[in-house]
Amino acid sequence: MYQYAMYMYRYGDITEEINDTYIGLKNTIVVQKDFQWLEITHSSAFAVKFVSSCVDSLSNALRALRFYRIDFGAFKTDSVFLGLKACNNLAALDFFECVKLEQETWINTAKYFKKLEFLAIEIRAADSMPLEFINKIIRTSDQNLQHLLISQDARLSEYEKNYITQTLVTTILRHSRNLRSINFPDFSLENAITLLKNCPKLEHLDVYTADFDQAFRTMAEKLPPTFVSIGFHDLSYLFENLEDYEDVIIDFLEATHHHLAYCSIYPHNLDDFSLDDKIFKYGVSMKKEPMYESLT
Question: CA-CA-CA-CA torsion for 189, 193, 194, 200, nearest 10 degrees?
Answer without folding.
Answer: 140
